[in-house]
Amino acid sequence: MYINTMVADPSDSSAPAQVSGQGWGVSDPASASQTSPRGLSAGSLTPHMSDCRWSGRALAAVLDALEAIGEQRAAIIGVVFGSAPLLTDSVSHDIVAPMARPRSPDFVPRLLQAAARVFARNGLKRTRMADIAREMGVAHGSLYNYVESKEALFLLLVERWGHLDADLANRELPIRTPPMESIVNRLRQRIDDTFPLVALDAALSRRRPANPGRELAGVVRELFVRTEESREGATILERSAVDVPELYHLFFEQVRRGLFDRMTRYVTRRMQDGVFHDGVPAVTARFIIETVTFFARHRHLDPDPQTLDDDTVRDSIVDLVTRSLTVAGDGKRLNRPRRPTKCATTRTRS
Q1: Measuring CA to CA, how many Å separate 266 from each of 206, 279, 334?
Q2: Domain locations in the chain?
Q3: Is the model's pLDDT at 246 over the cut of 90?
Q4: Which fold, 107-178?
Q5: What are the tens digits of pLDDT across the range 105-120?
């Protein structure tokens, strides 16, 4: 079949290809890294056409050509009509899935691990199924044997967090696209199950501790361990919450704000008891949480990390936070610094 097509850079989704003639193909097959026997590069199929009409016959020709490309055939998702997508993640499985390979037993762990990395970088809204397939090094269509959409994959990741090597032997596949409400409810349940703060709750119910330093050390250590254990999931949720209002409400307004409130109430009580140094309770509570969050989670995302032993870091942070807040054994209390009065300043200078 005769085709006259200009190839778009596969890495630049904004660069349109121009298409003319009755068929499909590539005018410069040598410019693509992988081409089919017909000279067609799957990565180049990103035309934006405002003056052409897609016919069933033309689309069938494209699909036929993509089938000959093998691993690159799923790039049909990149084809768009005008300014709106012709095929999107939510509908592409109907066309691409029949071309996918049979299921393999090690595919699910690889899929979940790749999805975790991509969601952590991009968040839910900005991730495409093609991004995850590229991370795995497999055909786009292969993913649709297991999940119907990125939302279904996101929910599966939430459900299997901590057990990414599990298979889906007892699940009906592909997993259907869930409503956002289901994702939020499952996330809330998982957070409650995996992030209990027993030591903090016990401290809140205690009038005055016999050993304030030991109590605070227990609170900080538990928070550090829970943050360490959930750091990958928390990173994914925090990154996704920026762009998805329902997830923003869950993570920032409920989970994080709730933790700040509980820690603030705890700090307030111990300052009133006279066992913590004076300070602004909300600021002190935030200092505890943010210090723990950085060293338990964010330092692992540093592009130029220090080589530090995790146990040593944990013990050091617990010790530093505890000693900085608790009153010494002699009962001396460190008060907040106050601005010197004008008279005091004058006397000092004289």
Answers
A1: 10, 13, 18
A2: 4-87, 107-178, 184-325
A3: yes
A4: Arc Repressor Mutant, subunit A (1.10.10)
A5: 788 899 999 999 999 9
